[in-house]
Write a structure and sequence with these properties.
This protein is an alpha/beta fold and about 450 residues long. The chain contains 13 helices and 20 strands. The protein has 2 domains: about 140 residues, Lyase, Ornithine Decarboxylase, Chain A, domain 1 (Beta Barrel); about 260 residues, Alanine racemase (TIM Barrel), CATH 3.20.20. The protein starts with about 35 loop residues before the first strand and ends in a 12-residue tail after the last helix. Bound molecules: pyridoxal-5'-phosphate.
Length: about 450
């Protein structure tokens, strides 16, 4: 027999993020049935599971917002898309269509940028390994070569004499900006005078055209003051060059490294609540440059190579529940069809995971395992999810940066990648691997062929 419950006055209470309250910690109960209007279940049906999905809308919005944020604070800004963050041609071409140049760290990426129609003069060539042939080609093409070390500088002097051309170069500068461990393995150090020595050598020698100064202080940098400090040191170098050699530097390239809204493992608050907005990074950099003391007609261009922060929230991994299990200690576990070989960033982020279908309201702490036959294949060590059934679909958020480029073929095939265009229409932008693709570069010596 049901007895009538006693009346309780309704009560509205604020839920504080991160703090434990009578409802437990904050979790994501909401279903996430579609990406930009394309139903996730239909996408998985059509293109296979698991599946990477990119939102063109979000990519464009992120870029336009970032560009406006910088351009409303500083008069001369140029973005260059960091290829290694996601070098799918469809994605690169969206950035290029918005006016972004290409920033590459290898010959393979350089060639990709050329094939995507980027003008050679608008390619920034970074990285510690450029072969002699790479340097010759980039010099002839008039690309911006960012010198990483003295051996590369000497090699470029040689190439400039040999080809009788003046390569356009910048030096990469590393420095102490209060972020430890310091990223001092790339470029020339500021504090110990190495950067100044490189500048001196370039100008004294006269064979290279020193057009810029470059730094990239690290990645997933959560403190905007680090950028202010870096911009100050770069401006000091540029002003010293002007004072000492009466030479005006065309640009200061502040690299990338802005954090995306992902939540780092062990973080108390979710990244969406703690990561600085792009405007805070922009403010730190642009106000420092504007106040550095450049005459207004000699203000250097500001180049930005922002990667992660422009793409992470535009990429999703959609997949399917394979099975549920109970672990020996009683914990609930769920096996899904996407593993750490394709979601590399699971090693350091607690990725947001939502469900596609309408499920129950009661959640249980669950371990989310990938499908690989490997103990480290854990997508989330602990996540509160409603009871899932085999065949249910999940979406992992903020996976647009580095996962596609760093994913490896291991045990299972790498998934297809789909782009949802601005009208909500899906386009296949990379096909799923199959046995032929995976084996296409294998060679079986005749004597081992048992057929
Ligand atoms: C990787 C890289 C970037 C992009 O870094 P994000 O952290 O993705 O913004 C920019 N410049 C250089 C030189 C890089 O190596």
């Amino acid at each position: 027999m049901e007895t009538k419950k006693t009346y309780e006055r309704p009560l509205i209470k604020p839920l504080n993020t991160g703090l434990m309250n009578k409802f437990g910690t904050r979790t994501d109960y909401a279903t996430f049935p579609d990406i930009d209007g394309a139903p996730v279940a239909d996408l998985l049906e059509k293109y296979g599971s698991p599946l990477f999905v990119y939102s063109e809308n979000t990519i464009r919005k992120n870029f336009v917002d970032a560009k406006r944020t910088f351009e409303t604070r500083y008069p001369k800004v140029q973005f260059a898309w960091s290829y290694k963050t996601c070098y799918l041609n469809a994605v690169c071409n969206i950035y290029h269509s918005e006016g972004s140049w290409g920033e590459v760290v290898s010959r393979f990426e350089y060639d990709k940028a050329i094939q995507n129609g980027v003008k050679p003069a608008n390619i920034i060539f970074n990285g510690p390994h450029k072969s002699d042939d790479d340097l010759r080609m980039a010099s002839k093409n008039g690309s911006l070569i960012h010198i990483d070390h003295f051996d590369e500088l000497y090699k470029l002097h040689e190439i400039a004499s040999e080809l009788n051309i003046k390569p356009r170069v910048a030096i990469r500068v590393n420095m102490d900006v209060g972020i430890y461990p310091k990223w001092d393995r790339f470029g020339f150090n500021y504090e110990n005078g190495q950067a100044w020595e490189a500048i001196n050598k370039i100008i004294a020698n006269g064979k290279l055209e020193l057009v810029g100064l470059h730094t990239h202080i690290g990645t997933y940098i959560m403190v905007t003051s680090a950028y202010a400090l870096a911009a100050k040191k770069m401006a000091d170098l540029a002003l010293s060059i002007k004072r000492q050699f009466n030479k005006t530097i065309t640009y200061i390239d502040m690299g990338g490294g802005f954090a995306s809204k992902n939540t780092l493992k062990g973080a108390y608050y979710p990244g969406t609540d703690t990561i600085p907005d792009i405007s805070e990074y922009a403010e730190a950099i642009t106000s420092t440059l504007l106040n550095a003391g450049f005459p207004h007609d000699e203000l250097p261009y500001l180049y930005m190579e922002t990667g992660r922060a422009l793409i992470d929230n535009a990429g999703f991994m959609a997949g399917t529940v394979i099975a549920n299990k109970r672990l020996s200690d009683g914990r609930s576990a769920t096996i899904v069809d996407f593993g750490v070989n394709t979601l590399f960033t699971s090693f350091w982020y607690d990725h947001r995971v939502t469900h596609v279908e309408e499920l129950g309201v009661h959640t249980e702490d669950t371990v989310l395992y990938g499908p690989l036959c490997m103990n480290i294949d854990v997508i989330r060590e602990n996540i509160a999810l409603p009871a899932l059934r085999p065949g249910n679909h999940l979406v992992v958020h903020y996976v647009g940066a580095y996962n596609v480029t760093q994913s490896m073929q291991f045990i299972s095939f790498r998934p297809a990648v789909v782009l949802i265009d601005t009208n909500g229409k899906p386009h296949l932008i990379r096909q799923q691997e199959n046995l032929d693709i995976v084996q296409s570069h294998e060679v079986l010596p005749d004597y081992l062929n048992n057929k």
